[in-house]
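Bench notes, afternoon.
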Amino acid sequence: DGPALAAWLRSVSPVREATIDRLYERSDRLMWAVVFGNLLVAIVQGVLLGIGFAALGVPNAIFWTIATTILALLPLIGASVVWIPATGYLVFVDRPVIAVALFGYGALVVSLSDNYLRPMIGGHEARLNPGLFVVGLFGGLTVFGFMGLFFGPVVLGLLKVLVELFAEYRPPARSAM
């Protein structure tokens, strides 16, 4: 249905064909940037936590690395769903020093990597300011619920694309004199 929808939008749009092509191209780049950014951050978080698990001697580190990578695709939930219970497990099996080390590593290295990399990668690839990308994440969460974590940056990016195209094609302002 995607190609049919695109063809219909082209047929009813009053905008020139070249402008529509540029809009589609920029929109496509934006959506791939958000998907690619989420995937790359998930892989980085999985690898970072896997290194931490292996260094601290947590059993089944490879399994937990894969689980972390998959769960890290969910922004704001992600990797913490793995490392927080793992610290509880380590306390339960009487390894409190390692539990504290894992908690600190998870909070400082893994979680901060999410807070830093997601806006940086997603914003860079989408040509969107990282601060604006974060606004898109939280605004999307507020407006669309959980799926807004993905839709928010896309909607904000599409708005930016539309404003840029408008600025390129609007007639020059007439002077007041």
